[in-house]
Amino acid sequence: MQQAKFAIALAMLMVFTSLSGCLGSEEETVYEEPSPFDFGREIPSTTWYHYAGGVNALNASDVQAANITANLTGDNAPYWTAGSYYGIGMSTFEPTIGITSDDNLYMTSWGNGPAGSTAIVQCSGLIEMSNLSDYSCVNTYDPIAPVPNSNDPYVYVDKWTDRIMKFDMHALLGMTVEWSDNEGASWSPPTPATSYSVQDHQTIGSAPYPAALHPTTWVFCINGNWESPLCSTSFDGGNTWSPEVPGAPLGCNSGGLSAHIEGGPNGNLYRGNVGCSGSGYSIYRSTDGGFTWTEHPLPTEDSGTADTWNFEEAQVAIDDDDNVHAMWIGADNMPYYAYSLDEADSWSEAMMISPPTDIVGTGFPVVTAGSAGRVAFGYVGDTGNDTWNAYLTVVSDAFGDAPLFTTVQINQPGDPIDTEPDCGYNRCGGLGDFLDMSVDAYGRPWFGLSHNLQDIGIFATTTEGPALRGDVAGLTVMPTGGPETL
């Protein structure tokens, strides 16, 4: 009897052991780490997440092969991002732009003002709009006696006073200046900025450098067919200007072409162009209101410099904490970036910032910045067969060990901005000599350029994505624009 009971117990034990093995295998669960790129919706085909050097951040093997230790947290976290553009209803040429604290965007339109003058196009309702019908663009330059159209139109909005400055360049005849302190409702009489030297390829900027008669100091530089740019300063808001002085150290043979001037909160002014040796790129800094300039070479040893028509375009931007950000096109016609934490005295390593896609060359670089380490870049790129698209790249943690770059193509496939051969390497339609960029108060970047195939000026931006000021996740969603806004 005891043996029978033992046999039954042994048999039951073997059955339950077998069952527990089966049940155990069924309960085994494999847990996968959630990806920071799981946004709950598909990533657009015109959006790329990448690291410097075009490393695809969504491809773990590519990241590992590049020896990148990813830390996609905090300000470096990815956000679902898309881009688009919005037409201004008029043509443009060398589209400089500006943004006022009343949330108005401004762009020049060559020849479309009264009596054929340069129009200053005001787009209201575009910033933070919820429907495409919320915005409209009109010319806001309508003085009693409009200044004749210039060969190079230029508009600039002072980031500290909201003064809108309109520069009209008249080649050998000098330059005239007008301004508005009421969103273009009225304009000052024109005042002469210069009366000597060839006038070409001007750039204008301001900074809160101490000025007796105005809260900010204004500086412009031009290509006067001299060994370096020639620069002039106004301490009274543009009413009078100093004689032109060299925009580089004496004896610096950089050539007269200069990229945009940018002013920092500490009063410094910066501009970029070819180095004093005639090779490489440098950022030039003025700490005395534009009267003297020092050279600060960029780290172009590995990137080289572009050998294209607009080769001088070494662009610079200053963030809200006075950090300096520079962008240029390398010898491979790709965009490069470096930053400085000490007013351009030293630089980070150069980073190639083109996304992992089929771009074969780029041009017309421009850069802007918001809060510390939050930067946006604009440029045009060819995806083959002279299909030129426009790209906007943002980074919200530039000073991290492995900053994540997010790039959007602002025009959709089948809607290129130009198909002219070598458009990004030469003067090209409404793009002219240069483009422009700025950040609004909410942290949204705005990129001014031309849709050349339609001959319409456009503002491009991220309809959704990280903010360059305030809460990184703080941008509201904008409606998609595109061809219907042209």
Notes on the protein architecture:
This protein is mainly beta and 486 residues long. It has a single domain (80-394, 411-479), classed as Methylamine Dehydrogenase, Chain H, CATH 2.130.10. Helices cover 7% and strands 33% of the residues. The chain is built from 2 helices and 30 strands. It has helices at 2-27, 60-65; strands at residues 47-51, 55-56, 82-87, 97-99, 104-109, 119-124, 136-139, 152-157, 164-169, 175-180, 191-194, 203-207, 217-222, 230-234, 245-246, 262-263, 269-274, 281-286, 294-297, 315-318, 324-329, 335-340, 351-352, 361-369, 375-382, 388-395, 405-409, 436-439, 445-451, 456-464. The termini are far apart.
Give a summary of the structure in a few sentences.
By secondary structure, this protein is mainly beta.
CATH superfamily: YVTN repeat-like/Quinoprotein amine dehydrogenase
Based on DSSP secondary structure assignment, what is the total number of beta strands? 30
Determine the N-to-C terminus distance.
Answer: 97 Å
What's the oligomerization state?
single chain
Could you tell me the mean pLDDT? 91
CATH fold node name: Methylamine Dehydrogenase, Chain H
The low-confidence parts are: 1-23
Give Rg in angstroms: 27 Å
Find the structural class using helix and strand composition. Answer: mainly beta
CATH class descriptor: Mainly Beta
CATH architecture verdict: 7 Propeller
Q: What proportion strand? A: 25-35%
Q: Helix coverage percent of residues?
A: under 10%
DSSP helix count?
2
Largest sheet, in brief, is:
6 strands, antiparallel
Can you tell me the overall shape? globular
Tally of structural domains: 1
- Strand order of the main beta sheet, please? 2-1-27-26-25-24
